[in-house]
Fold:
Amino acid sequence: MTVNKPSSGRESASSKRRAALLAGCAATAALALTACGGGGATGTTTKDGFAQVSQKDGALTVWVDATRVEAAKLYQQQHPDVKLDIVTYDGDANGSNYLQTKVQLFNRTGKGWPDVVFSSQNNEATWAVDAGFAAPLDKGLIPSASLGKFASGANDVCTVGGTVYCLRNDLSQAVLWYNAPLLKKFGYSVPTTWEEYQKLGEKVAKEHPGYLVGDAGDSFTPEIYLWASKCGANHITGPKAVSVNTSSEACTKMAKLMDVLIENKSMSISGVFSTDFGKNKADKVLLMPGPAWYGGALFEGTFKTPAKQVAAAPIPQWQGETSPSTGNVGGGTWLLSKHSAHIKAATDFLKWVTTDNAYQGEKAPGFPAYTPAAETWLKGQDASGYFASDLSALKDASSQVWNGWGSGQFSQEAIWAATVKPGLTQGKSVVSLLPAWQDSIVKYAKSNGYKVSQ
Amino acid sequence: MTLSHSPAGSATRRRRGASRQSRAGMAFVAAYVVLLIAFGVLPTAYAIYFAFTDAGGRVTGFANFVTTAQDFRFMDAVGHVATYLAFWLLSLVVFVVALALLLHRLASGSASKALRFLYYIPGALAGAASVLVWLFMLDPTVSPVSSLLGALGFHTFGEVIAPGNLPLLFTIIAFWTGAGGWIVVMYGALNNIPTDVMEAARIDGAGAWQTAWHVQIPMLRKWIVYMVILAFAGGAQLFVEPQLLSLASVGVAGRDYSLNQLTYDFAFQMNNINGAAAVSVELLVVSVSAAAVFVARSGFFDAD
Structure:
């Protein structure tokens, strides 16, 4: 050290000159970038795996749906020093594409992107990466230790080309919800296979007409029944490739089961959120295969089912199978904008909202994707006294999601709603609609630039 | 002096007055022209530029038109809009004219005033709000006319919004929203028919039906053509009704039912702004061509 000391003064002067030169170049580059960029950016630095705009102070803009407002408010309460601008939007519910629409516009105007955004859709990453909106999260922003604590496969829908671009809010593995006192009163037991489920449905139709063992009227019906049956209608095999086959036995046997129960009216085709279902059928639910969020959002929230009635069992499996397979009905995601000028604050919010027990463990309505929070959440659900059983079925199902069904850029729910649902309303069978469903998926996939194999 | 000065002075005042009037007129027209250029002509020109270029700004000729026309939803959307237009224009011409004649028949009195007000109310509601009102009306579970829907065989919202019913439903919604204003306009036009013409018809022994068919309707022709031109352009751009119905029915009504919805889908779902512009330009060409045919065949701009 001392040997080098005499020369350090000269070196220091020359390094200062170099620094000044570099600063000059950087400033010129920044100016050039600003001129070319046409908005917002005053220079970028590549960090955490992407080019970040100049960071500055100011309010952190967070877009949430009505349900997640509570999360943002709680964060604000716990972090009074953070300036938070909470914007409520539809959360892209029912595939409204609001976020995508807005991002396309912001990309044109060069400003306006939210820093962090919640979406109730699982396929946001598929377009948000192409649109240059979603920031990579596993290149420095979120430590791998944290990412490793998300449930296995939870962030698959957020992963594009091996990089994680969003964090899963909640899992939506399906289980078999049932009305425990009613089932006991009727003298039935919880079916463990789909064959038993069908038999029970036939019995209910005869012995207790009007009561229901399920519902096939929602746009997410295929994700509850056909995904659970390992129907290969939506196997995303590459970034822009999908395999579609709705005629396999896995699809037809579930379709036949549904047809039998729809025919004898033990399975409704109204849709659980329709006014018809709420008014006429909500108190007639004996069994209801459905996602984790049905417990709080549907039974407790929408149907106002009294406490100590609703219980959860594993979703049935086909006879001869060793364990159930489940579908995945939504589950929200959180994205961080590449354009954010408050990356540190945004990352802090993102980490908190997806992992912190204060929200995910204690307040979240759905099954948290972050495993430690999920454990707290399950304990909270048990302690709440609402459910008639423990919810361990949810925990088991979280690792039983069949991975042969993916989240593509085209909405499976919209396709089912427009193609199959009107046919069901007109009295057509699910089996007879399978070819039309396949045809529609293929057309939409091709239209969105997917290579389709059938 | 005073006598000789006076005519010259008044002429000067008239000239000044006329010049002031002309300047005021120019100012009003100029303001309109500026707005028309800023929000009508320039965006249209921009859309035409987009329609013939790709995302990188390179000229592509008709490639965007070909790509969008080959999309599997395009011809379906054309069919849907054409069916809706047939329903909508026919109902508009028949019922608006009939209701205006009826209103005029009631002539003076509070009933006429009340009816004119009643007809106008739906038009005062914004398009989206009227559709929302209809979403309640069409859901048998909550509709105030659920017994009527039940009598027609509709017991669930899903049955009401079956794809085959959509052109009729959109027509009913659009008629309820837009027809009232046109009835008031037609009523005004009927009032402008000289009383001596009506009187002559009456003296010649024409009854209500003959007066309407041979006198009033021919004299309303230009107004009817004007209504059809605007209704065609508006109807071809069908968007709010199917879009809201699609959201309310969770996709059953389809997000790509109309051409404008398809345009929206191209722009924001598939990130193909240029394709969206191509479809918009096609709609523009069709609407302008239809208007030209109507104007040419009806003598719309002929002086009386």
